[in-house]
Amino acid sequence: MKKILCAVLIAVMLLTFAACKSTATIEFADGDQYSEIGGELNVLNWGEYIDPELIEIFENETGVKVNYVEMTSNEEMLIKLRSSDSPYDLCFPSDYIIEQMIREDMLLPLDYSKIPNAKNIDPKMNEFTNVFDPGAKYSLPYMWGTVGILYNTTMVEEPVDSWGILWDEKYAGNIWMYDSVRDTIGITLKYLGYDLNTRNEAEVAAARDKLIEQAPLRKGFGTDNMRTSMINGKAALALIYSGDAFAAIDENEDLAYIVPKEGSNVWYDNVVIPKTAKNVEAALAFINFLNDGNVAAKNTEYICYSTPNKAAMDRLGEEFTEDETYNPSEEVLARCEVFHDLGEFVEVFNAAWSKIKSSN
Amino acid sequence: MKRKYFAYPYIVWMILFIVVPMIFIFYYAFNVNGTWTFRKCWETLTDVQKWRVLLVSVEIALGTTAICLLLGYPIAYILSNMKKSVAGFISALFFVPMWMNFVLRTYAWSAIIEYAIPDLFNMTRSMTATSTGRTIAVLLVLVYDFLPFMVLPLYNTLSKLDKSLLEASRDLGANGKTTFFRVVLPLSIPGIVSGITMVFVPAITAFTVPALIGNGNYSLYGNVIDDAFKINPEYSIGSTLSIILLVFVLISTLIMNHFDTDKEGGSIL
């Protein structure tokens, strides 16, 4: 009797293990076939920035074992990649960091013969991406968006059209700023009428003082946590990326997003291969995989950030393509610009940021 | 003589994880991208704002230690006068939460402060909306986190107290109050000293609690160091700040040791 029981238990356990083996598949838009590559692929990406099912599909298609490591800021990523034994084959930095990485010769030029799906990238993205990576030699856009204000319409009654509302004492303790040096100082520079990429110390100092002045009004410097806070109605206003705003509005319809009239930042998170990459073949295959129309559509539906992939856009519903937050109009983009690598001047920004952060 | 060999693993451990990191900190403090310079170090030393944050951190750490002592002493005293079995059970209630990860508990507190407390007291804004509210919230969570570190050494000292001394004190005509202040309190000083050290040092170096509870809007010295390493690609500023804190902790420990006349508390030096 005991033996039978034992056998049954083992059988159940084996079945459970078998069931755990993923069977996720996807139909590729262009009927692509992936050959067996094998080995490991070490990916460094932002948190919650890929549909985990896609990783499984890629592993099943190519036999590559994907090790996915998350980061919380561009600066952190740069420190990780600079380390002499960096294992990463693929990462997803933002525009200005890519410009810096190109300058420091940290990136491998992309071999487009291995990325046929690169044709799916919307050519209208070039206007912005050429600024930091001319001719997309080293990077392909992965996600993009704007920076703006997410606000709760039940708490904020007046129309929101200026960054100035983030300094309105009526909303003391209800204002979230972004825990990122370039974004938070950048929009303050814009509010004061300066250039987002200024190299003028006095202008940065003015922005710094403006943000120190904001300290008593501020709820905090958040990242992913402020999305939850906004959805739950725990704050009135948040400086946020359009993708997070789009996801938050989806969960709480009292929320709304705008890009203020003073102008803002349009940002790109691109995929790049560091020079230290070990498995370049798998990295290129992964980039090609991500740019498949169906894959990119599934990914953007999961992440809620805007896709630069035209083939994916064609597959998305109106709730995406007709949404001003997800797909900003030409008129909004006209007042947005990308961040530039500041070179040595970034120290001035860092020193200002350190003062702002410790001004409680 | 043979006993000396047992110390070798400890010496290796000390060199690897205490001495070597210290050398790194000193190296990075005075070395910017491969060149020796005092410039960054001097800039950091003369930054008034950083010193102001250190002052706030000292205040918060002293506050935490004082509250822990005021709360912890009666708890330890009551526990030490209980039957061993009951005391064991109650102190288990105290220490079981410590088995859970510290960051997880801090996250739980962040939810309590952000959601539960405002709902309970019908507050229109969360507790962390004002600077005072944030200070109170950070203090509250620090006290919660470090209270067991105060209670444990106090309980150890108080439960080992020779009960015949208390009887002698009574025999000689002292009332309960006098016995406590003239006999119990002086005899428990080693426990108080090690309790204070065990709370003050982690409290002044805390950075998870202010970061999570203060929503990144409340900086203690630990956060300033954390930011310095995260924002700047070179480690000079962060290392200099670490040295300042190190010296500070060292001085405060020396001061505490001065009070520990019996030299038997769990002080770190």
In CATH's first tier, which class of chain B applies? Mainly Alpha
Oligomer: heterodimer
pLDDT below 50 for ≥5 consecutive residues: which ranges of chain B? Answer: 264-269
Strand content of chain B: under 5%
- The name of the CATH superfamily of the largest domain in chain A reads Periplasmic binding protein-like II
Name given to the CATH architecture of the largest domain in chain A: 3-Layer(aba) Sandwich
Biggest interface, which chains?
Answer: A-B, 32 and 28 residues
Q: What percent of residues of chain A adopt helix (DSSP H or I)?
A: 40-55%
In brief, what are we looking at here?
Chain A is α/β, with parallel strands linked by helices and 360 residues long.
Essential attributes:
A: 360 residues; alpha/beta; D-Maltodextrin-Binding Protein, domain 2; 2 domains; 15 helices; globular; B: 269 residues; mainly alpha; MetI-like fold; two-stranded antiparallel sheet; 12 helices; 75% helix
Structure, described:
The complex is a heterodimer of chains A (360) and B (269). Chain A folds into 2 domains: 9-144 and 268-328, 3-Layer(aba) Sandwich (D-Maltodextrin-Binding Protein, domain 2), CATH 3.40.190.10; 145-266 and 333-357, Periplasmic binding protein-like II (D-Maltodextrin-Binding Protein, domain 2, 3-Layer(aba) Sandwich). Helix content of chain A is 40%, strand content 16%. Chain A contains 15 helices and 10 strands. Chain A has helices spanning 2-20, 52-62, 74-82, 95-103, 126-132, 181-191, 201-214, 225-231, 242-251, 280-290, 293-303, 310-315, 318-321, 330-333, 346-357; strands at 40-46, 65-71, 90-91, 139-152, 175-178, 218-222, 237-241, 255-258, 264-272, 336-337. In chain A, helix 7 runs parallel beside helix 15. Chain A is globular. Chain B is an all-alpha fold and 269 residues long. Helices cover 75% and strands 1% of the residues of chain B. Chain B has 12 helices and 2 strands; from the N terminus they run αββααααααααααα. Chain B has helices at residues 8-30, 39-45, 48-80, 84-95, 102-120, 131-159, 163-171, 176-187, 189-204, 208-213, 221-231, 236-259; strands spanning 31-32, 35-36. In chain B, a hairpin with a 2-residue loop joins strand 1 (31-32) and strand 2 (35-36). Chain B starts with 7 loop residues before the first helix and ends in a 10-residue tail after the last helix. The chains are: A alpha/beta (360), B mainly alpha (269). Chain A binds chain B through residues 73, 75-76, 78-79, 82, 172-174, 176, 179, 181, 215-216, 218-222, 225, 229, 232, 234, 347, 350, 353-355, 357-360, and chain B through 49-50, 53, 56, 114-115, 125-126, 128-131, 134, 214-219, 223-224, 227-228, 230-233, 237.
